[in-house]
Amino acid sequence: MAIPNFYEKENEDEPCCSDPAIHNDDGMRVCHNCGMVLGRSFVATEKRAYTADEVKNRKRTEPRWRNFGPRTIIGTNSPDAKGVSLQGKKQAMFNRLSKIQGSLVNSLERNFWEARPKINQLAQKLNIPDHILETAWKIYSEVAKQKLTMGRSIDSFVTASLYAGIRIHNFPRLLEEVVDIALLPLRSVHRSLGLVVRNVLPVLNLRYKPISPGPLVFRFGNDLNLSVLVQQKAANMLKTALKHGLKKMGKDPKGLAAAALYIAAKSTAERKTQTEISEIARVTEVTLRTRAKQIKLNI
Q1: What are the tens digits of pLDDT across the range 198-232?
Q2: 135-139, 202-206, 232-236: least confident range
Q3: DSSP secondary structure string for all residues of 168-216
Q4: Do 108-204 and 213-297 share a fold?
Q5: What is the DSSP track for 219-270?
Q6: Spatial distance between the Cα atoms of 75 and 268, rounded to a whole number of angstroms
Q7: CA–CA distance, 287 with 42 (Å, rounded to integer)
Q8: Could you read off the pLDDT of 164-174 as tens digits, one per residue?
Q9: Segments making up each domain of the chain, as ranges
């Protein structure tokens, strides 16, 4: 029988018996009165510990695993695997072993320890799919191996690697959005992105693709709460204009996508103002009107 997976919830009554006594034993939630296994117990984001008892209850004695570097990390917790407190000599020995293990870690692993949580957090805030995140981490790993981060900001290279992965997979995210979420200067990310494109992507045989206005049409349409019919109409209109001679070289794809949505929504009840569309697309109203005229001439 498969054991159900769900996150641990505190103070939740489980209908297992008349007097449930639910405890966490070896990663399982078990009722000590009836013996029923309720499911796996996952360690999620816990609340902050304030008292000594809370700190003691939340100490982890199991090995901590990483995708890189030493697989098992020697911790400095006082209890052993069974929860029994270590004696003074043994606790001092494990503290010494932990320090020795830390001194054996090279600079590349320390770089990864700092960069991996940052790139995961940034991808989570931007709702980036896992396959793009893996490409971004592959790019950053090559950045660190080439020692491009020496004397430069790790945060900038993390942001540049993630945006390079976005461009490789043609995912509808803008550089301005990534920079705003990362809270970094645009100029610093631009400089790091240039190094990534010149020195890293050729080694990995990855192609830095230009932004396509097609995916941006649906992205901006969802942000503007437009219906699927209007978004599809705008996408077809943009394809027709490109086939009939509209040149997209030298034109910002954001402006083309925004102009197509403006024209498609103008004749419906979902009409949006130029200010609303330009704010979502991050272009000026002048650019929006200019691109709209060019699309109309090529339909």
Answers
A1: 999 999 999 888 888 888 888 888 888 888 888 88
A2: 232-236
A3: HTT-S--HHHHHHHHT--HHHHHHHHHHIIIIIHHHHT---PPPPHHHH
A4: yes
A5: HHHHHTT--HHHHHHHHHHHHHHHHTT---TTS-HHHHHHHHHHHHHHTSTT
A6: 63
A7: 51
A8: 999 999 888 88
A9: 1-45, 63-104, 108-204, 213-297
